[in-house]
């Protein structure tokens, strides 16, 4: 199905673009939500008008959210969590947790869909991208540390683990297995 995007759609395109999408995606999501219209001859004549309106709307949004993006760039979120000896968390830090903590700090509602990161399942330091608009995507720093310890200890531990953890290839594993087996003695 060919559609003409009326609004910017994340990971699909900008307003005024003509895209070929799956029938179900177009029929069940893009068209009902008002993100796109069918790419008919009449709609194609409106491309330039849609692009100029979208550009005006996009620049107004960017100007409006520029200050918030600057605030978000300076944010460092810290999460205390229970973890095992290996540094793996009992549970995870989700995008919802990050969005809630960020909303409290910057006094601007951030939805979980705007946070681009996989759920965090280990101790350490991470970066997440916050999609305010298609053009404004500030990064934040997230520190996950063990309950009862300081946040600085988590970053130090993560650096030590990265330095100590050698990458093992298939030939290294064979050498290690051979070294563990007792050598046969000849009498």
Structure notes:
The protein is of the alpha+beta class. It has six helices and nine strands. It has helices at 23-33, 41-44, 47-73, 95-106, 151-164, 170-180; strands at 2-5, 18-20, 36-38, 76-81, 88-93, 115-116, 120-122, 124-130, 139-146. The strands form three sheets. It has a four-stranded mixed β-sheet with strand order 4-9-8-6. The mean pLDDT is 83.
Q: SSE string, helix = H, strand = E?
A: EEHEHHEEHEEEEHH
Number of domains: 2
And the CATH topology of the largest domain? Answer: Ribosomal Protein L9, domain 2
CATH homologous superfamily caption of the largest domain: Ribosomal protein L9, C-terminal domain
Q: Which sheet architecture does the biggest sheet show?
A: 4 strands, mixed
Q: Quick one: overall form? A: elongated
- Judging by the overall fold, what is the CATH architecture of the largest domain? Roll
Could you give the count of β-strands?
9
Oligomer description: single chain
Helix content: 40-55%
